[in-house]
Amino acid sequence: MKASIMITCLGDLLFPDVGVAMVKLLRRLRVTVDFPPGQTCCGMPLFNSGYHHDAALVAARTVKLFERAEHVVVPSGSCAWMVKTEYPGLLKDDPALKAQAEALAAKTYELSQFLVNVLGVTSIDSPFQGRVTYHDSCHLLRGLGESRNPRALLRGVKGCELVELPGSDECCGFGGSFSVRLPDVSTAVLNKKLANVESTGAACLVACDAGCLMQMGGGLSRRGSRVRAVHLAQVLEPEEGE
């Protein structure tokens, strides 16, 4: 089986270690991985800010970059949602591009969905040890309807103890440009989330979206918390010594 990585802009710029973990994990599961060059942002910031024409230009470029991919795997639920849900509508005025967008949408998966739904994997031999709690990112949960697969994978790691997070389905306060436009509201939402995280006694806060990890990881660091924010891939394929 072959999979092309859509690394996302936050993954590329801020979380390269997540990309490395994801590639190592997929290769260990006997997936041939490639990385189409020339990738940029998926266009979601433009789309959410109302610049739909510009977002459509990004979508048109992206569908061509991944045209030959067998499967496309994304480490962020929000970007997977953008490709699967919004690309066909953005490109609806060009029949050929719309067809390409629909084809890309059908073969695009958030990482946990690819592992469970495509590869049929729920138990992974990982050396990870510790108590974790899981945050449901908004787009993965509400946009893609996914909550079971990340939890199933965490429970499938022998040394991992999953503790449910109070308010796990509540936003972390990031919301892309929302956190910039309404910083006080964003911070209030974040503080509630982090208080819930610390109440679990978990050593790691796991999420499947880079935006959430950036928001919550930054908040945990500013509080001097002992809790680390990590991506699911980093639990399934931890670096040596973790």
- The span between the termini is 29 Å
Q: Major beta sheet, specifics? A: 4 strands, parallel
What do the pLDDT scores average to?
Answer: 95
Number of strands: 8
What is the total domain count?
A: 2
Element pattern in H and E = EHHEHHEHHEHEHHEHHEHEH
Structural class: alpha/beta
Could you characterize the architecture of this molecule?
- The chain has 242 residues and is of the alpha/beta class.
- It folds into two domains: 2-118; 130-236, Rossmann fold.
- The chain is 52% helix and 12% strand.
- The protein has helices at 9-13, 16-28, 44-48, 52-65, 77-90, 95-106, 111-118, 138-143, 148-155, 178-181, 183-199, 210-223, 232-236; strands at residues 2-5, 32-34, 72-74, 108-110, 130-134, 160-163, 204-207, 228-231.
- The radius of gyration is 17 Å and the shape is globular.
- The mean pLDDT is 95.
